[in-house]
Amino acid sequence: MKYIEPHAHMVSRTTDDYEKLALAGCQAVCEPAFWAGFDRSSAQGFHDYFRQLTEYEPQRAAKFGIKHFSWLCINPKEADDPGFAREVMSLIPEFLKAPNVLGIGEIGLNKNTRNELTIFEEHVQLALDHKLPVLIHTPHLEDKLKGTRLILDSLANFPQLNRSQVIIDHVEEHTVSQVLDAGYWAGMTLYPHSKCSLDRAIDILEVHGPDRLWMNSACDWGISDPLAVPKCALRMKARGHDPAAIERVIHQNPVDFLSQSPRFVI
Amino acid sequence: MPGKSELLNLQFIEARHSLVELAAFLDRFDRHEVPSDFRLEALKNALPILLENHPDRARKILESLSDPSSEPIPHATTQGAAGAPRPDL
After folding, report:
1. What is the ipTM of this complex?
2. A82-89 and A114-129 are packed helices; what angle lies between their axes, rounded to 10 degrees?
3. Which residues span the domain enclosing A168?
4. A160: distance to nearest CA of chain B, Å?
């Protein structure tokens, strides 16, 4: 079964995981810039990270026949200091020329602060200035509902934004309707203990239908499973979903969204 | 889509496991001298939703465990999330 992993933090994973992804049928992996588990002490640390995302990881993935794409930003967890965030953002245009960069992400909110919101909006403007798709992170646990509403309210202030080029990730049962009803794509993250379980993601698909929905593992340095997407596909089969329905959500939908970047060629 | 009996065959043991685990978690707290905690209270407050007869229990439980405020906060006091809204919010 071929599939796309549309959200994975491979810098945190071993090379063995690339082999597992390849064996499971992964054609391409997309890696948004994120929080590495600790705060970086300088903008130079982000320069190195952006090089890793645009130079090193594509080579590591290629050894297993997997295409690697990336999204760039300063993540919301490190964006509460606007001066520092803007220093990092000033590095991004240089890296947007890299052939594997699809857009701006994963931007968004973490603790729903004013500064996070300001930097989020400056990232959206950066994407608009460069005509790039946007991948948005919604906050964790108790902060998700409020953060999703703040993000949607903020995006409404960008009338020039093409909503079909924006995916709002980590939706759950209490946020998915708001995202889809507003015309955006929605991502479901399959985590063992937080976000969506395999069965809850399938429930959301059954309730809301497959339009503008994808699923991802968002595997990183925390408790996560790089094979969550193919495992969810297997679970869909057990729950009676036909092969075409499964293929749509794990392959065709990601291809449809990501192909809005001319660089997404698999 | 599978019928209700097929779903039961597929998932009853998992659901039973989750229910027993939750009960044991609450028992564990009762056996220990632990001061009341906003997370535990939030969990207990969400439990009655399980017995409602509407197919949106997951959404309602997630909402009950969410920060109910609507304005951005001035500054973050933590980087992480607790899983339930802090009482000072």
Report:
1. 0.95
2. 20
3. 3-258
4. 24
